[in-house]
């Protein structure tokens, strides 16, 4: 292990104590509440409400069809339109989603992976229409396809072709949207799938190395993309372990990048990350307890030095969060910022013998896992063999057995159980909104210029078949009102599909 945080200050390499000297005393983390459901209009209303209540950044959740590059009227979309996020079929939907929001001032995060190029292209197209300079838009697109193969399953194309799209997006943004984070390498979904804190750090940073290696092999300089790489971690119930996890991840990423890529920019070695409290820890039993769980998890993210934070709503184990629940979740962040005094100090728990020891242990154990993945050929080769998948399955099984036998206590589930039934009901979607969404898509097809759409899709196909960066042809096609399903259908035809090993 390298680095001794007892001898370093916040803002000093290897950044165990934080990437900025004064941390939150100078600027608070971005309060970025994840939201998206049903139609673009309803989601826009939720965004405007959250911004009015003091949210400082947008975070968009897309429905499953959108995440898989399908239109709402595709037979495969039946039953899933608008359920776990907003449905976006075309530039018309994106216009409604962002209506009344100044894209030159707000920072927007989009949780999208396989069709990340498509959704960023739509965002840029709407910014163009609004007259916002592309260099002024700020935000993050997740664009992390490797974790989809490992833990989440929402991938479309084979790995090599997916990495080509990832790199195309990174290259295009480095030249056109320098304020945009081109990838958010996510440990969150792997932690939700059941891995440990150590495995979350190890597998996530291993994936990040794979992206960096692929980008440099394609001709990019590490200093052209690494400063715009970001990370996305979960935050669980073990407060001190989670604080230590964030500290260890920062130090480890610095050392890995320095050793392999020797960048000239210091920002290329800084791990910047978004945190979301752990959805998997929320319980349908005694749901109000989730408010306390989320509070402690959010506090540990702040103590660990996160750059932005989403706090889950207490009713998410029951259904989509209500306005009341999301407001409480946002107020949780605001209370930590305004009333605890924690933001006044960089790395408040630095120097604690427990936190320092845990930081070192997580660093060493995560590094061992990264080294093991490298010995087996790197992240992509291990995904093809199902290695990371099997690691996560094993940890998830141990945790499940612990809950079932009572050795892991969960209040309201196997400990301090109440006989009272849950009275709270989550938000319910109006099925008529699905009909409206499909109707609006069919209206678009009758009103648009089909010749322009056809020609633009032909241009996109040519760029996919060659080695041209696909972003500009993609933006052009979407401006012609080609749909999300149509542009991804072209890519599916050219690139093909793939099935990831389960690891079981």
Explain how this protein is built.
β7, α10 (239-261) and β8 (273-277) form a beta-alpha-beta unit. The chain has 19 helices and nine strands. It folds into two domains: 10-405, TIM Barrel; 450-494, no CATH class. α11 (289-303) packs across α12 and α17 runs parallel beside α19 (484-495). A nine-stranded parallel sheet has the order 5-4-3-2-1-9-8-7-6. It is an alpha/beta fold and 504 residues long.
CATH topology category name of the largest domain? TIM Barrel
Q: Give helix and strand order, one letter per element, not per position.
A: EHEHHEHEHHEEHHHEHEHEHHHHHHHH
Distance between the termini: 33 Å
CATH superfamily of the largest domain: Methylmalonyl-CoA mutase
Strand content: 5-15%
Shape: globular
For the record, the CATH architecture of the largest domain stands as Alpha-Beta Barrel
Question: Could you report the average pLDDT, rounded to the nearest whole number?
Answer: 94
**Largest beta sheet, briefly?**
9 strands, parallel
Q: Could you estimate the helical fraction of the residues in percent?
A: 40-55%
The CATH class of the largest domain: Alpha Beta
Computed CA radius of gyration, to the nearest angstrom: 22 Å
Q: Tell me the domain tally.
A: 2
Sheet/helix structural class: alpha/beta
Q: Which ranges are low-confidence, i.e. pLDDT below 50, for 5 or more consecutive residues?
A: none
- How many helices? The count is 19
Give the strand line-up of the largest sheet.
Answer: 5-4-3-2-1-9-8-7-6
| Count of DSSP strands | 9
